[in-house]
Amino acid sequence: MLNDNYPKRHPENKELKLYYGSEYRGLPVMYEKGALIEPYLEKMYNTIKLAMNHYPKVFAFRVDIHFPNNWIHDDMNDKNVIERFISSFRAKIKSSRQTAKLNENYHDSVVRYVWCREIGKYGRPHYHFLILLNGNAFSAMGAVNSPIPNTYSRLSEAWASALGLDVVAVKGLVNKVRSFFTEAQGYDLGELFYVSSYLCKAGTKYYGDGRRNFGVSRV
Questions:
Q1: pLDDT in tens, 98-128
Q2: How many CA atoms lie within 13 A of 157 on its CB side?
């Protein structure tokens, strides 16, 4: 039973209800990380289920994305950076699917995602992402230093584009965490949801600067 002394709402944003259980909708969550934000869990759950209802197989992966050490954070160069990153990555996925049409086993893919913004050491922001693709179109992220374009290189190029930098300048700033294959029957869904629930933790998020801290795709 929840201790009555535990806060029910986020202290910096009273509209956000906190969650302390070890499972959400029957799926395990990282309760050991402290309070989670219930509306975020619900949005993430709906995004994952939307992908699973769309495709018989889903290729999902977690990545962490950082700014360069010399990056100066202000409203001008941080504004809409995530929107630019997502837009660029979607364009690269679309381009790769156009090329794949020459293959008789062609499969298209929508890009679905969940992201959060957190504040780390020395007040520096960073981002965590869960990205979900058609598992019949994509099956791996690919090697970090591969000369052949792959999912990882497209992520790095998209982040460089979002920051207005050369891709060499973002080397090591896009970090793979974990990837999953989830089938319509729910295979591996529990592990996927557990690892991804990290994005929904209340700690290390800051609500005092007017920036968004969490978002999901709309398709």
A1: 766 666 667 889 999 999 999 887 788 999 9
A2: 13
Question: In this structure, which long-range contacts are made by residues 172-175, counting pairs with CB atoms below 8 Å and at least 24 apart in sequence?
Answer: 173/65, 173/66, 173/67, 173/68, 174/63, 174/64, 174/65, 174/66, 175/63, 175/64, 175/65, 175/66
What is the tens place of the pLDDT at every residue in 16-41?
999 999 999 999 999 999 999 999 99
C-alpha span between 35 and 159 (Å, rounded): 30
- The sign of the CA dihedral 12, 14, 20, 25 is negative
Phi and psi torsions of 192, nearest 5°: -60, -45
Beta bridge partners of 180: 60
Cα separation of 10 and 13, whole Å? 5
Q: Residue 176: what are its φ and ψ, rounded to 5°? A: -70, 135
Contact 57, 136 (CB under 8 A): yes
Structure tokens at 46: 């709906």
Task: Quote the pLDDT of residue 102.
Answer: 61
Q: What angle do CA 144, 179, 191 make, to 5 degrees?
A: 155
Q: What is the pTM of this model?
A: 0.91
214 closest CA partner among 42, 61, 93, 53: 42
Tell me: pLDDT of 4 over 70: no
